Amino acid sequence: MTSLKKLLLGEQGLVVIFAVAFAIVALTVPNFLTERNMLGLLQSVVTIGIVACTMMFCLASRDFDLSVGSTVAFSGMVAVMASNASGSILVGLLAALLCGGAVGLVNGVVIARFRINALITTLATMQIVRGFALIASDGRAVGINDPGFYQLALSKFLGIPTPIWVMAFFFVLFGFVLNRTVFGKNTLAIGGNPEASRLAGVNVASMRIWIFTLQGLVCAVAGVLLASRITSGQPNAATGLELSVISACVLGGVSLAGGRAAMTGVIVGVLIMGIAENVMNLLNIQAFYQYVVRGLILLLAVLLDNLRSAAAGRRA
């Protein structure tokens, strides 16, 4: 029983459990292992995977961001509208990055400088930014004028869609940042003990601002790719994304109490979310039941986080 508990709570244990679950699904669900389905599964988790890379830093520093879904939708809208207006895809991309970064910067400044709770701040910006997206589009989808915009999502390299490569690049990049840079070490230190980090010379407020700004920039990238994939700027896109991203991170071992994170765990958490939805679609389970499954996964993630925290406390 003790060894099973260690397996459930350990980082390598999560990978083992995922591998076993993947094998069971592959053997029992028809068409799951086909190339088309595997690429479709990876495509379906691109948005969650990209945003989870920086949500990991938010959670590891004892914060979180509920505005990511709205920022993704708003950035995608801005990219399409700016591209249509200017006739340049590059201008659209830069406009999206600027808007996404601005949302993250505002979140960071309000949380770090004005000391307002991250829950309240990002809940407010979630509503405000979604409102901006609806106002800018008059509540309607905005079509893409330049067919080249579609190629951001439709293009392939070595037979694999470009968005999957982008997600993989972000996994490698932010995994390196977390494990090999001062920025990553300071993030974990702040999450472990903000006051001790401040006394050790870490500029906690500045770090938080940078983390949220990065979150906004990454959301912009995800928003552009999503708009390209769904062939329009949708003001209601990415609704509920924040819950899926937080679930994936916490399932992957990122602590809600801060101070603990691992990119390998986040990747596994993202894949678990994607496989659960993919299997339900393959089995033709109604969308209504899928909401129940997502809620159960979130509860499971929080339960595992509590168990990990308790185990870490006992070891300490």
Automatic annotation (TrEMBL):
Locations listed in the record: Cell membrane
Tell me what topology the record assigns in the membrane: Multi-pass membrane protein
What keywords appear on the UniProt entry? Cell membrane, Membrane, Transmembrane, Transmembrane helix
User: What GO cellular-component annotations does this UniProt entry give?
Assistant: plasma membrane
Listed Pfam families: BPD_transp_2
Molecular function as annotated in GO? transmembrane transporter activity
Q: Where are the transmembrane segments?
A: 12-33, 39-59, 66-83, 89-112, 157-178, 209-231, 243-276
Instruction: State the PANTHER family in the record.
Output: ABC TRANSPORTER PERMEASE PROTEIN YPHD-RELATED-RELATED, L-ARABINOSE TRANSPORT SYSTEM PERMEASE PROTEIN ARAH
- The protein's name in its UniProt record: L-arabinose ABC transporter permease AraH
Give the species: Shinella zoogloeoides
